[in-house]
Structure formats: C-alpha cells, structure tokens
Design the sequence.
C-alpha cells in the first residue's frame, strides 16, 4: 500500500493535465488542484497498512447486508476519489458477475485486474459519459464517428481507442480511468462497445480540468468549498493504446455494452443516495440554525417548511436503509444493494433537492448573498457596526450569524451550490434513468393482483 507522500510522487508519471488554459506539471503543489491531491493523500495515510498484501478497508468487497452497511457508513467520511475507487471496483465486479455466462473471458480479466489494482493500491475514476454529438442520433449515425469512444484499431496485443469522456470527477488525481460505454449498443455499433482500464499517464490521454474551488484570497467566506473541492475532468483519448489484459470488452459484443453502464448506475446511485442522506440532514440543520438566529424558529410557516425538510430527509434515509437491508448476494459472495430502493431513493433525493434548498433560502433571507465578508467584520472603521447590525439578539452576535450566511451561500448559492444542483440531478444518470430502472424492478404483477383481489375480481386473476 502507498502512503500519502508516495501517492503524491506517483502523480509524476508524465500525465498530460490542464487547467485554466495551461498544462500543469506539478499537481501536488498547484495552489488549487493541490488541495484535492492533499485530500486524497490524507485518505492514503488513513488507510495505510504496511502489512505485505494488505488491502485498504475501503476496498473490501461486502458479503452481507451488515458489511454493505459498514462500507456505506465508512464512505460517508472518505474523500471523493477514495469513494469513486470503491464504486469503480464494485461496478467491475457487478459487471463480471453479469457477463460471466456469456463472455467468461471478459469476466476473468475483470477479476484479475481488480486483484492487481487492490494490491497496487491505486485510485480509479469512472469515465462513462461520452461527448455524444447530436443527442437525437445513435452513436453510429453521428457526423463525427468519434462522438462516442470507440475502438479504431485491433492489434494482437490490444486495442486503440479514440474519443472523449466528460464530467469525470478527480480524473487528474487518479491512476486509472475505468472507461465503459455510456449506454446500450445495437448490432452494427460494436466499435463503441468498449470497456477497459486506461492509465492516466498513457500516451494520448489528455485531461482538461474545471473546478468550483473559490478563486479568492480570503477563504473564510467559503468555509466548505475552500477545504474540499473536486475538479471535473474533460478526458480525451487521442488514439490511446490499451493492452489486452486491460480490455474487458473490446468492440466485439454490442449487446454487452449496457451491462457495464447499468452496473455503474447501481453503485453511482447508491453513492448518490448515501450522499443525500448526509446533505439533507445538513440542510435541515442549517434551516433550523438560521431560523433560530433570525428569531423565527417559532413562526408557523417556518416550522412547516422545516417539517417538510425533515420528512424528505427521513424518506431518503429510509430508502437507503431498505436498499441495504434487501441487498442480494452474488455467486462470488458480493452483496449488491437492492435496485428498486436504490433507484427510488436516488430519484426522490434528486427530484426534491431544489425544494430543500428553496425552503432553506426562504427561511434564511437575502443575507445569504449580501452578508459582508469576514474581512469587513474586522475592519476598524466598519467592523463593529456590521457586527452590531448583523446581530439579532443578545445571544446571537453578528459574527456567528454572518458565518452561518457564508456557509449557506457557499453550500447552496455559489459555485459549490451550483455544482450540487447539477450533479445531484445528473450523477448516475438523470431522473429518467432512475424512473426506467425503478419501473423495471417494481413488482407490477403483484400490484395488479392486489387490486383485483381488493375489487373481488378473483376470476380475472392470472388471466382467468
């Protein structure tokens, strides 16, 4: 296993990564991207075990509902790159289980690669969303055939791929890019049916980063995003060679492409659902704190809004509990969360997040955006006056209330807030994707039978 310092050193592998129009040659010491590196390095030190052959606790494959719950609880406290690594491994093992009977070669390669990755203690990011071109057309009908990542050459020792993957969190800070199809493919689209592991430092890989990290000298006004932020990578595969042992699906089986996409969807949505549990409780907490600071915690419509928020938070938590409790165990002995509860919970969390934020903004008021900065509170000419007028009562001083407003703005109404607003909807597929999977796993025949029984129409049950 690697230490944090060894992880930092491992990033010096010739990778081509860019930010704000410039190539970055020293990620650990970059003033913005380096913060994410530090966060990942802290994760390395946290899980470091010098025992030969040891595997990080966060990489342990759960074998029961209780072990799955322990992993979910553990991942609530890890950095995003560590969490994404675990989700990637579980995605691969899920896909391996699902393709074993029809494509054992790919299944065997996946399991061997996972064992190797666990021993190398690498970090993995998920490359799934393609550039897509004209969204109304299939991959094979685009003006530019590279709109979806595809195999452009088959060699005896591997394949060459070309294309781009978008919205790849922490891609520049990882070691491996889990590159899989974004959707199901049809006959004739075999070249787009590619699933493989690409080293970040492989020749031809180029990563362009964006981030919601604050570009301000005084980070106190950004109490959340200044401490933890994750760049999003625009990953370009400019004719990249991938050796055979890293290829799980190499452009030969169009019908298996969707297996990888759906396998990732399960673990992405479980991670999203788990994140909603924490974020919903935090939103309720901010709403209650700012209502008390404003002196409005006993006003009826404020209490009603917070009650609505509490109900939504509890429903989200309930779906996570159901997803874990009703898990299934594969032939490999790996526990997978229940598909129905995972997708319903992710859908409910994503669909109602804007309502939660709206309630919080309505309760808090306009000072979310207009509260003076912390440096202004320290100004000798204005600071005492700002503190005076930002206070609301003897027990609530202006500094405390200002800090609450800055936290709420940073979390919900600034760059980080915008990132949450979009990613909560899109991570793991949009709302439609969760509807489709929820419908597929809901027992509609049972519901129809119950309705017929309730109506005393027993003669129509089972087509009678």
Sequence:
């Amino acid at each position: 296993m690697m230490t944090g310092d060894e992880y930092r050193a491992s990033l010096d592998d010739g990778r081509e990564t860019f930010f704000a129009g410039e190539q970055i040659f020293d990620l650990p010491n970059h003033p913005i991207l380096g913060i994410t590196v530090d966060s990942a390095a802290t994760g390395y030190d946290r899980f470091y075990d010098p025992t030969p052959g040891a595997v990080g606790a966060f990489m342990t494959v759960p074998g029961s509902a209780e072990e799955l719950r322990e992993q979910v609880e553990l991942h609530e406290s890890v950095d995003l790159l560590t969490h994404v690594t675990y989700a990637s491994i579980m995605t691969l093992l899920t896909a391996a289980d699902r393709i074993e009977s029809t494509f054992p070669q790919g299944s065997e390669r996946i399991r061997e690669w996972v064992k190797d990755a666990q021993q190398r203690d690498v970090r993995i990011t998920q490359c799934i969303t393609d550039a897509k071109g004209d969204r109304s057309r299939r991959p094979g009908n685009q003006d530019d055939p590279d709109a979806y990542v595809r195999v452009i050459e088959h060699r005896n020792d591997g394949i060459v791929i070309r294309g781009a993957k978008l919205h790849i969190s922490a891609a520049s800070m990882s070691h491996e890019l889990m590159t899989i199809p974004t959707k199901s493919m049809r006959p004739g689209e075999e070249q787009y049916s590619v699933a493989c592991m690409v080293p970040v430092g492989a020749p031809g890989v180029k990563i362009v980063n964006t981030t919601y990290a604050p570009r301000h000298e005084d980070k106190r006004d950004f109490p959340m995003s200044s401490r933890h932020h994750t760049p999003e990578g625009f990953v370009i595969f400019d004719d990249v060679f991938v050796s055979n042992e890293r290829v799980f699906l190499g452009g030969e089986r169009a019908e298996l492409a969707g297996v990888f996409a759906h396998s990732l969807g399960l673990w992405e949505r479980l991670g999203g659902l788990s994140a909603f549990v924490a974020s919903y409780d935090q939103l309720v907490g901010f709403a209650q704190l700012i209502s008390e600071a404003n002196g409005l915690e006993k006003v009826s419509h404020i209490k009603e809004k917070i009650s609505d928020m509490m109900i939504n938070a509890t429903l989200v938590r309930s779906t996570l509990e159901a997803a874990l409790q009703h898990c299934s165990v594969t032939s490999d002995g790996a526990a997978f969360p229940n598909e129905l509860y995972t997708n319903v919970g992710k859908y409910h969390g994503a669909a109602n997040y804007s309502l939660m934020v709206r309630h919080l903004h309505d309760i808090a008021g306009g000072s979310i955006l207009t509260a003076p900065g912390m440096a202004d509170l320290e100004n000798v000419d204005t600071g005492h006056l700002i503190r005076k007028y930002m206070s609301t009562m003897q027990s609530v001083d202006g500094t405390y209330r200002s800090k609450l407003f800055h936290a709420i703005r940073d979390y919900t109404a600034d760059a980080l807030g915008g990132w949450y607003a979009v990613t909560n909807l899109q991570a793991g597929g949009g709302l439609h994707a969760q509807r489709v999977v929820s419908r597929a796993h809901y027992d509609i025949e049972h519901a129809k039978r119950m309705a017929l029984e309730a109506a005393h129409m027993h003669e129509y049950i089972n087509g009678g």
Residues 257-294 form the longest helix (38 residues).
